[in-house]
Design goal:
The structure holds two protein chains of two kinds.
Chain A lengths: L5 H33 L17 H8 L1 H32 L6 H9 L6 H18 L10 H30 L2 H9 L4 H12 L1 H16 L3 H7 L10 H11 L3 H28 L5
Chain B lengths: L1 H39 L4 H6 L15 H9 L1 H32 L3 H13 L4 H15 L6 H27 L2 H9 L4 H12 L1 H17 L2 H6 L8 H12 L3 H36 L1
Helix pairs in contact in B: 1-13, 3-13, 4-5, 4-7, 4-10, 5-7, 7-10, 8-9, 10-13, 12-13
């Protein structure tokens, strides 16, 4: 058997990666390229004909003020939600690694919201917001004001993702060896100082990963948006992903919807690349 | 000296007590929505509207009617079976194909391997919204293969391959010594046997992590299944819940039962496998 023969290489590659390559190309690569093509057509979703319209979809996408409103709203929501998620997750992780009794129970408990899909979570919280909170005298948040719906979305997102990010921070805390903390404390650090100046800088990878996960998830929020607020009141809580969905599947403007999806992709790619770059640059070797 | 260390110990105890109180409060806040659903599932609509916080209905008292009603109207067992078939097959196929792909990529410096792996890594920043319109257009309009479970399963696998391959790549690269494979080769194993009998069994921790992360994602996914499966008899639990809510949103008792039913399977599984799930997600974090 000659391992440098082309036929050997081809058969090996096809045996192990053939199906993967086909599936990956079939659902990711091909649709991505085909999607680019769709942005230059005015497809109606039904007919086999896809008339070529040049850059019309892009001008329509850029001129669509509701899209920019949705995008702006998504950025505000994401920034606030990401900051809160990570603060809550970090504090929880700190507390469940501090050595109190039952920390495994709490870790498991805080993770529960992640087990359940966004659709079901959204409906559960809709009940909480529209029935339980008014029953104890709190104002109705959903379906009344834009700020109320935004507040509700942020609150549910923090509740939903804090437990997941907490587990990543827990892994970070546990990866920093206890002897470093002890050394710092012998040198005169208080426990909180040694956490802040020794442990946290060594947990950079956890921060980068949590930020990446929470940013992408918040930015692309759809399920909870659909079940919790449905875009109410009057489309004032429609996030970017939902706007793209509505544009394509509800209003049948497939070309415009796809063009707006590509704008979202570019935003995502910029955020992703910046994150990787910033994360790599400041890495501390332990 | 003794009093100093005693002081430190007392301080530590005090801090632990405070942390404990905070943790219990946060935990109650975390499970409050679930408890609310559980309380109201045993009440009738009038009582839920009257007081969603009371333990037992004031007017009509305790009822078990909501469960069987919601189950039959939602088509719960059908949806449960569908979700189970889709989740299990997608997870198994993802693990098989991604670990095989990772194996050939790690062990060979061929151009095709580099290209595939590079494309997979790059594809991770593509949000699903970019692919959904062309996906529906291609597989619904041109090939006409929507409304089949197989289509959904293969799409699930295609979308999750990149991340899974990436994780297996890391595991094989760092944990499987090349000498092991050389020994297998000398003993007369083909590459396939080497993979199936030597390498794959050693990947168990990563297999568990990938299985947990992907199975949860498949079980809970709404957007992709809702685009692919539009026939009621193929609905998975998230789609069935969404459709049920659309029809019965005013009948709160039924809704509570449906939501609880939608959550129960995975919560029961979590109680049984809680340790593995938490460990799997945590170690996934370290590898990712």
């Amino acid at each position: 058997m000659d391992r440098n023969k082309m036929s050997y290489k081809v058969s090996q590659f096809l045996t192990f990666a053939g199906v993967s390559t086909i599936l990956f190309c079939g659902v990711v690569v091909l649709p991505f390229i085909y999607g680019l093509y769709l942005t230059f057509t005015s497809w109606d979703g039904v007919s086999l004909e896809k008339p070529f319209v040049g850059l019309e979809n892009y001008t329509a996408a850029f001129a669509d003020s509701t899209f920019w409103a949705a995008l702006g709203r998504t950025v505000i929501y994401s920034v606030i939600a990401v900051i809160l998620i990570n603060i809550v997750a970090f504090l929880l992780a700190y507390m469940v690694t501090s050595g109190v009794k039952g920390q495994n129970f709490f870790r498991a408990g805080f993770f529960i919201p992640n087990l359940i899909g966004g659709i079901v979570l959204g409906y559960v919280w809709q009940f909480v917001f529209s029935r339980a909170f008014p029953a104890i005298g709190l104002p109705r948040l959903l379906g009344t004001t834009e700020a109320g719906a935004m507040f509700a979305l942020i609150m549910v997102s923090v509740w939903q993702y804090a437990g997941y990010m907490m587990l990543i921070y827990v892994a970070g805390f546990m990866s920093v060896s206890k002897s470093l903390m002890e050394a710092a404390q012998i040198d005169g650090c208080t426990p909180s100082q040694s956490t802040w100046y020794v442990t946290v800088p060594l947990m950079r990878a956890s921060f980068v990963q949590c930020l990446f996960l929470s940013i992408t998830r918040c930015f692309m929020v759809y399920d909870v948006n659909l079940s919790l607020t449905k875009g109410e009141p009057a489309g004032k809580s429609v996030m970017a992903a939902m706007h793209v969905y509505n544009q394509a599947f509800t209003y049948k403007n497939y070309g415009t919807g796809q063009a707006q999806a590509l704008i979202l992709f570019i935003v995502c790619a910029i955020v992703g690349v910046t994150q990787v770059y910033v994360g790599k640059r400041g890495e501390v070797a332990a | 000296m003794i009093s100093d260390s005693e002081k430190a110990l007392a301080r530590k105890k005090r801090i632990h007590a405070i942390i404990m109180i905070i943790l219990i409060l946060v935990f109650l806040a975390f499970i409050f929505p679930f408890i609310l659903v559980v309380i109201n599932v045993f009440k009738e609509k009038v009582d839920i509207v009257k007081d969603p916080l009371s333990l037992i209905g004031v007017k009509k008292g305790f009822t078990l009617e909501n469960f069987p009603n919601a189950m039959s109207k939602m088509g719960f067992w059908k949806a449960f079976t569908n979700s189970l078939i889709v989740t299990v097959s997608s997870t198994v196929l993802t693990i098989m194909f991604s670990s095989m792909t990772a194996f050939v990529i790690v062990r060979n410096k061929w151009k095709a391997c580099g290209l595939l792996f590079g494309a997979m890594i790059a594809s991770m920043v593509i949000p699903f919204q970019v692919l959904m319109v062309p996906l529906v257009s291609l597989y619904g309009g041109i090939f006409g293969v929507l409304n089949h479970r197989v289509t959904l399963i293969l799409m699930h696998v295609g979308f999750s391959l990149s991340m899974a391959t990436f994780m297996f790549h890391g595991a094989i690269h760092t944990n499987i010594p090349l000498e092991l494979e050389e020994a297998a080769f000398i003993d007369g194993c083909t590459r396939w046997q080497t993979w199936w009998k030597v390498v794959f069994p050693l990947l168990k921790p990563t297999i568990a992590t990938v299985a947990i992360i992907d199975a949860m994602a498949f079980w809970n996914d709404y957007l992709l299944p809702s685009l692919v499966l539009q026939k009621k008899e193929l609905y998975t639990i998230p789609i069935a819940t969404q459709a049920f809510y659309g029809t019965f949103s005013s009948d709160l008792g039924l809704i509570m039962a449906a939501l609880l039913l939608a959550m129960l399977p995975i919560l029961i599984l979590y109680i049984l496998l809680q340790r593995y799930i938490v460990e799997g997600v945590t170690s996934g974090a370290v590898k990712g």
